[in-house]
Amino acid sequence: MRKYFILALIGSSIFLFSNCHPGKKLAATAPAKTTFEGNLQTVIMANCSPCHIPAKGGNKKAYDNYANVKEDIDGMIRRIQSEPGTKGFMPFKHDKLSDSTIAVFTKFKEDGLLEK
Fold first, then answer.
1. Count of structural domains, the chain
2. Is residue 31 in a domain?
3. Which whole-number Å values give the CA distances from 61 to 51, 54, 86, in the listed order?
4. Residue 40 burial by CB count (10 A; 0-12/13-18/19+): exposed, middle or buried?
5. Fewer Cβ atoms within 10 A, N terminus or C terminus of the chain?
6. pTM score, two decimals?
7. Which backbone phi and psi does 75 adopt, to 5 degrees?
């Protein structure tokens, strides 16, 4: 009787463990990267115009293109994180951007300054 119990235990163990392997695990999804065209460009168009958007009459350095934004991202982040009234604060003559809007700029930099 003990022999049958051991055989049944071994058989059920083999059955259970035969279906357990790394291929059955759920694939972890990586968070989406923030890109200029996918995320940042719309934020810039909404918050930095007309001054930095030539098509809207802006006469400051254009931030409607990836190359200029990539070049100036550190300064942009520093200026939008400044408090109103301090030298260099942006957006000039407007309220400070929300933390979630500022986070788009910082995540863009953290994710590697991707264009697309």
1. 1
2. no
3. 8, 8, 20
4. buried
5. N
6. 0.73
7. -65, -40
